[in-house]
Amino acid sequence: MSKKYALDMTSAPFLKKIFIFAIPLVLTGLLQLAYNTADIVVVGRFAGSEALAAVGSTGSLINLLLNVFIGLSMGSGVMVARHIGSGHEDKIHNCTHTAMLMSVVCGIAIGIFGFFMSGKILVLMGSPADVLPLATLYLKIYFLGCPGSMVYNFGSAIVRATGDTKKPLFILASTGLVNVGLNLILVILFHMGVSGVAIATITSQYLSAIMIVIHLTKLDNACKLRFSKLRINKTELLKIIRIGLPAGIQNSLFSISNVIIQSTVNSFGSVAMAGIAAGSNFDSYVYTATNAISQTAMTFTSQNMGAKKHENVGKIYRYCMTITVIIGVVMGAIGTTFSDFIVSFFSTDKAVIEIGAERLSMIMPFFVFCSLMDVAAGQLRGMGESLKPMIVSLLGGCGIRLLWVFAILPMNRTLMFLYWSYPISWAATFAVQFSLYFILRKRIFSRNA
To answer: CA quadruple 356, 358, 364, 367: dihedral positive or negative?
Structure first.
């Protein structure tokens, strides 16, 4: 492999290189969440529980609309890593420029759709009347930032495929500080509430996009971005779609079930919405840390598949699964033990704290299954198999949750009984995803020989 690329993922020692790659990726995700948490804390403490409910309740809808395109960015990263492993410089060049042009098109498309349709979808979700206007305002402003968000996601996926996870961390650290600073100014000083939080968010998104594009134009390898070369290469586009679209649909399917669950939560009122929003924020920290390991497994595996070093794939999988278990168990224990303390960061309302802490105490002991499920799916994507994990997620994740909401929940219609659908669906989906690796690997290796 050319020394122009940041990290050779096709030769030992793998554990050391996994940590070199994963630690900045974990920090990037946690930092991003810390800035998102700052949004929630600022709006919850200085704009009231209705504003907190409005911002917190939009997450599942945002994920639903964005995840397909985030999946395409993942597909871009997988294909760039595959071409780097195989040493095909022309394919790396074509894939990079196809992906970056896609990011602009996708960002504009989802931005327009989200701006005009988010209010109507919130109504369908049953958002309470006291929350609906604020939630709609937040989403309309948020979706104006989608082009910037997409450019950053596609660009950072390409940079990470080269083995460099430090640059995206630096960019996010810089723009995140801008986000927090604007939050404090717009919400506390100018009393702009949810609109202030949304404006701060999209400002940081566009700054991130500008910085990642500048970095790509300065690379000294085949991933170097040249604006004059931006065009869609049909072959690379189809490869990105083949890997990325099922991954995006898989994530959106989970988001659909989350939207339905959020709709059920909405029926319990704004206090319940605020409590769930505060409690579930910690879930995101655990998921983000372990999702970084999933992306590590996917990228390392993809480079080794490109280099046809199949003997390394199993080693990478074992290392990543072990690290995931350790992170999931430790952070799950923290969430369970300090649930009241964690939720109190987001609200001083005793009813909100009680609901959020109760949910954390129930969810956290089982969250490791969510993490393992994600790594198992990422490993298969890195091997070039994305459709079957999507189908498993449809049947295991969404199917079980929908069955729970519509058939089982009516037997005991409480918030905590509703959230039992999560660990049950995680465990079932992980079991099948994990089994798929052993069922499919010989066939995949033979196809890639």
So the answer is: negative
The DSSP code sequence of 371-413 is HHHHHHHHHHHHTT--HHHHHHIIIIIIHHHHHIIIIIGGGS-
> 215-244: per-residue pLDDT in tens?
999 999 999 999 999 999 999 999 999 999
Backbone angles phi, psi at 77, to 5 degrees: -60, -40
Contacts (Cβ under 8 Å, ≥6 apart) of 57: 127, 131, 135, 262, 265, 266, 273, 277
The token pair at 54 is 């409005």
Residue 344 CA to residue 353 CA, distance in Å, equals 6
Sorted by sequence, the CB contacts under 8 Å of residue 335 that are 6+ apart come out as 282, 283, 286, 342, 360, 363, 364, 367
pLDDT, average across residues 366-386: 91
Question: How high is the pLDDT of residue 347?
Answer: 74
Q: Give me the phi and psi of 352, to 5 degrees please.
A: -65, -45
What's the pLDDT tens digit per position in 163-179?
Answer: 999 999 999 899 989 99
Q: Which tokens is 326 given?
A: 């350790």
Nearest to 182 by CA among 43, 347, 61: 43
Contacts of 330 (CB under 8 A, 6+ apart): none
Contact assessment for residue 139 and residue 119, using Cβ atoms and an 8 Å cutoff: yes
Q: How many CB atoms lie within 10 A of CB 291?
A: 20
Measured between alpha carbons, how far is 131 from 220 in angstroms, rounded to an integer?
Answer: 50
